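Exercise 7. Given the components listed, write out the predicted structure of the assembled complex. Treat all entries as one system.
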Amino acid sequence: MKTLKVENLHVNVAGKEILKGVNLTVNTGEVHAIMGPNGTGKSTLSQAIMGHPAYEITEGKITFDGQDLAEMSVDERARAGLFLAMQYPAEIQGVTNAEFMRAAVNARRPEDDQIGVLPFMKELDKKREFLSMSAEMANRYLNEGFSGGEKKRNEILQMMMIQPSIAILDEIDSGLDIDALKVVSRGVNSMKSDDFAVLMITHYQRLLDYIVPDFVHVMMGGRVVKTGGPEMARKLEAEGYAGLRDELGLDIVLTDEDADEDITGGLI
Ligand SMILES: Nc1ncnc2c1ncn2[C@@H]1O[C@H](COP(=O)(O)OP(=O)(O)O)[C@@H](O)[C@H]1O
Ligand SMILES: [Mg+2]
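Answer.
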């Protein structure tokens, strides 16, 4: 079993404290969800775990498999088995999707056991079909001109090819129609094993109908304020974040964007 452990994590972004003492433990074999209103620091947490340089850890620490992540580069973290599907996947011109994924897969394999083009393409085809993605996606430049839904599927395809130990999926459900949501969920569920954990960041309970979490954590004001099971997500959907905030007696202002945001995730 491998463990990702976040202890009393404080993170500054652009000189402002965004995370104010996050505690979280994720073991392989488990499915976790983090929910929380806009601007609360969910993406900041995922970026800090992967080691984005703009996210400065000022207090606390993150360990993976007992190793302090502060001593590891982004590359080393990925090689060790951490994976992040970003909320806004980057487009990279000049590098095809297939080339990018083969390099990522090989980065995690020993030098004398690199996967060749043919066996790689065979595996890619299998997983691509499982995710109902068209063949030409492999030869297009990474995410270039992909629709929002295609980018999300592509992140899942990468995860399935790379086979990380712990995958953080930042709003993998945003902007997906119901069919795409099912496809993405099928991909995630196919990865479930004792050697794999997933940490899904989401606003909405809907995703959790398809990928059932063992633990649901609610983040507000830069902290995990409550942890429960799937029932908590349903309660949140019914009562909103303001309901939980008042129940816990927290002094947090929820931003206006929450009210304005498209809570259907682009469905309507
Ligand atoms: N790279 C950045 N530069 C400046 N501010 C940032 C950056 N990333 C995040 N923030 C700020 O940190 C806060 C938390 O953002 P984020 O972690 O994206 O929230 P969430 O994912 O919960 O919606 C927001 O106020 C956001 O504007
Ligand atoms: Mg976010």
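Discussion: The chain is about 35% helix and 30% strand. The first helix runs from residue 42 to 50.
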